[in-house]
Sequence to fold (78 residues):
Amino acid sequence: MLEKISSPFENLIGMEIIEKSQGKSIISIRKKDELTNFLGIIHGGVLASICDTAAVQALMTLAPEGPYLTAELAIKYK
Fold:
């Protein structure tokens, strides 16, 4: 299942939902040069945005009434 997300930011990046079920969502993007860092890999900010969006999409299956706001997001890159 490919589902577009109705948000300007997510659409700018090209996020699509490829799987969504109770408490779970999997987000996909296509690699574009505009989303990479100087090493040619996906920028960490893009990865953090995908994590944030996936979490909210999963939460929406559990609490559809919202509202949704990420108060804190911590990612450790290695």
User: Anything to note?
Assistant: The first helix runs from residue 8 to 13. The radius of gyration is 13 Å. The CA atoms of residues 36 and 42 lie 4 Å apart. The mean pLDDT is 93.
